[in-house]
UniProtKB/TrEMBL annotation:
Its EC number is 2.7.4.6. It comes from Flavisphingopyxis soli. Signal peptide: none annotated. Its cofactor is Mg(2+). Keywords: ATP-binding, Cytoplasm, Kinase, Magnesium, Metal-binding, Nucleotide metabolism, Nucleotide-binding, Phosphoprotein, Transferase. Homotetramer. Residues 3-140 form the Nucleoside diphosphate kinase-like domain. Belongs to the NDK family. Pfam families: NDK. Major role in the synthesis of nucleoside triphosphates other than ATP. The ATP gamma phosphate is transferred to the NDP beta phosphate via a ping-pong mechanism, using a phosphorylated active-site intermediate. InterPro entries: NDK-like_dom (IPR034907), NDK-like_dom_sf (IPR036850), Nucleoside_diP_kinase (IPR001564), Nucleoside_diP_kinase_AS (IPR023005). It catalyses: a ribonucleoside 5'-diphosphate + ATP = a ribonucleoside 5'-triphosphate + ADP; a 2'-deoxyribonucleoside 5'-diphosphate + ATP = a 2'-deoxyribonucleoside 5'-triphosphate + ADP. This is Nucleoside diphosphate kinase. The keyword Signal does not apply.
């Protein structure tokens, strides 16, 4: 398998509860390496731009409000088959459906406040990484 990159966000519900280290530890234990990371406060414009793909969905406004409700940690992760590996360790979107030992099963509060976001494809990972990081910020 090839070493690839993916994008991750530790969401406001997790940063509010000081779970940044716990999430990162789970990612690293799953074989992913953090090659870029920064804690930021998303503006409304950033959230709307990042989630524009969901603009016509009924949850769009609530999602943007939630993602601007507190700081987030945006990360670039690297590892073998990074997108799949990250999605596996995140678990199902609904924590009630997530497997034991996954981030969402162990740390999420609800389906809305599910602690993490991760890219769903290598193409989206590249787009999402470029949204938040310049090439010189990614060091690995």
């Amino acid at each position: 398998m090839a070493v690839t990159r993916t994008f991750s966000i530790i969401k406001p519900d997790a940063t509010r509860r000081n779970q940044t280290g716990a999430v990162t530890k789970m990612l690293e234990e799953a074989g992913l390496r953090v090659v870029a990371s920064k804690r930021i406060q998303l503006s409304k414009e950033q959230a709307e731009g990042f989630y524009a793909v969901h603009k016509d969905r009924p949850f769009y406004g609530e999602l943007c409000n939630f993602m601007t409700s507190g700081p987030v940690v945006v990360q670039v992760l690297e590892g073998e088959d990074a997108v799949k590996r990250n999605r596996d360790i995140m678990g199902a979107t609904n924590p009630a459906d997530a497997a034991p030992g996954t981030i969402r099963k162990e740390l999420a509060e609800s389906i809305e406040a599910n602690s993490v976001h991760g890219s769903d494809s290598e193409e989206n990972a590249a787009t999402e990484i470029a949204f938040f990081f310049n090439d010189d910020e990614i060091v690995g």
